[in-house]
Amino acid sequence: MRACYRDAVVRRHRRFELLQVTLDETPIGSCTIDAWEDDDGREQWTARVLMKTGHGSTEGILHGATRSGEMLAGQVRFAADQQGPRGGRTVLVELHGQGPLEPAEPRPEPVTSEHPPAS
């Protein structure tokens, strides 16, 4: 598939949901990923996710699973946000990938009173 956007040719566009997403160590729910190849053959991607207003994050490692169970991770930087569907409590955040979105290992369960460390 080829599409033109601002004088650039986009190839191999894919849109998919990423589930059980964390930003660094913080769970943030699920997000929508748009991934494509640019004019120079580089893989590009963005993520859109609802986050709490005042989240304060600026960058981090996004990590999550596709519906088929494939784990993916990549470095992101915050690009923009706008008011979310829940009024002032959430914002729709756009994250720009900083490098590839790559296959990843599953994240270990967080250590909590419900999930104590293995002995």
Task: Describe what you observe in this structure.
The protein is mainly beta and 119 residues long. The chain has a single domain, classed as Thrombin, subunit H. 0% of the residues lie in helices and 64% in strands. The protein is built from no helices and 8 strands. The protein has strands spanning 2-5, 8-23, 26-37, 43-52, 59-65, 71-84, 87-97, 102-103. Strands 2-3-4-7-6-5 form a 6-stranded antiparallel beta barrel. A hairpin with a 5-residue loop joins strand 5 and strand 6 (71-84). The chain is globular.
Describe the structure concisely.
The protein has 119 residues and is mostly beta strands. It has strands at 2-5, 8-23, 26-37, 43-52, 59-65, 71-84, 87-97, 102-103.
List keywords for this structure.
globular; 119 residues; six-stranded antiparallel beta barrel; mainly beta; 8 strands; Thrombin, subunit H
Question: Termini separation (Å)?
Answer: 51 Å
Query: How many domains make up the coordinates?
Result: 1
Which runs of at least 5 residues are low in confidence (pLDDT < 50)? none
Amount of helix: under 10%
Instruction: Give Rg in angstroms.
Output: 16 Å
Beta strand count: 8
Any guess at the CATH architecture? Beta Barrel
Helix segment count? 0
> So what's the CATH class?
Mainly Beta
Might you state the CATH topology name? Thrombin, subunit H
Mean pLDDT over the residues: 84
Q: What general form does the structure show?
A: globular
Largest sheet: 6 strands, antiparallel, barrel
Strand content: over 45%
SSE pattern, N- to C-terminal: EEEEEEEE
Biggest sheet: strand arrangement: 2-3-4-7-6-5
- Secondary-structure-based class equals mainly beta
Oligomer type = single chain
